[in-house]
């Protein structure tokens, strides 16, 4: 007889924790490193490559994303996708798609730039429709706002949100939970 209230209590706690912490998070960065997505500041680069990273996600991965890259004092010459990403948008107006649902960290694109005097590159809502989102890989795909860290060779870095903070709820298997009540 105690099992039914216990099961109901556990289901209630799980439902409440899902509502409180269940929002999917996607972290994007612009880095000067092809091995470190969080190298977001440095010296100006007269001509070279910065990297657009899908740094992390709190779910299985992503299917697509849409946002713009805005630059000040940096000339963004080209966006060259890699690692299976496709760009149906333009150089600075990205409409990315990828197969396999990568969770990150993964480089989505090389950004060819001229940054001779120091400047910034930041993510912004799409000029086309105002979206700054990543779409998940669920059976019914949903768009989610992105967290992001830009690039700066001239002062503070532009950023919004956290890069996929750890879950506030510990995960246990159902067998582990049942084992607590024997």
Total helices: the number is 2
Task: Give the proportion of residues in helices.
Answer: 10-25%
Cα gyration radius (Å): 20 Å
| Termini separation | 14 Å
Please tell me what the overall shape is. Answer: globular
* Share in β-strands: 35-45%
Total strand count, please?
12
Order of helices and strands: HEEEEEEEEEEEEH
**Mean pLDDT level:** 84
Largest sheet: 12 strands, mixed
In terms of structural class, how would the helical and strand content be classed? Answer: mainly beta
Query: Would you identify the regions where 5 or more consecutive residues have pLDDT less than 50?
Result: 3-21, 168-174
Explain how this protein is built.
The chain is mainly beta and 182 residues long. Helix content is 14%, strand content 41%. The chain is built from 2 helices and 12 strands, in the order αββββββββββββα. Strands 1, 2, 3, 4, 5, 6, 7, 8, 9, 10, 11 and 12 form a 12-stranded mixed sheet that branches. A hairpin with a 6-residue loop joins strand 9 and strand 10. It is globular and about 45 Å long. The model is unreliable at 3-21 and 168-174 (pLDDT under 50).
Summarize this entry quickly.
With 182 residues, the protein is mainly β. Strands 1, 2, 3, 4, 5, 6, 7, 8, 9, 10, 11 and 12 form a twelve-stranded mixed beta sheet that branches.
């Amino acid at each position: 007889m105690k099992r039914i209230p216990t099961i109901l209590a556990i289901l209630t706690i799980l439902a409440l924790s899902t509502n409180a912490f269940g929002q999917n998070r996607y972290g994007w960065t612009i880095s000067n490193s092809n091995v470190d997505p969080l190298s977001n500041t440095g010296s100006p680069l007269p001509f070279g490559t910065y990297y657009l990273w899908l740094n992390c996600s709190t779910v299985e991965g992503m299917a697509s994303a849409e946002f713009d890259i805005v630059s000040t004092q940096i000339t963004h010459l080209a966006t060259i996708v890699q690692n299976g990403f496709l760009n149906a948008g333009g150089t600075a107006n990205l409409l990315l798609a990828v197969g396999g649902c990568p969770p990150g960290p993964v480089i989505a694109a090389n950004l060819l730039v001229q940054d001779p005097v120091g400047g910034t590159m930041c993510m912004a809502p799409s000029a086309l429709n105002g979206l700054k989102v990543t779409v998940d890989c669920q059976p019914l795909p949903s768009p989610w706002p992105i967290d992001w860290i830009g690039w700066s060779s001239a002062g503070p870095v532009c950023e919004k949100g956290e890069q996929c903070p750890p879950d506030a709820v510990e995960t246990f298997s159902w067998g582990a939970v049942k084992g607590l009540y024997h």
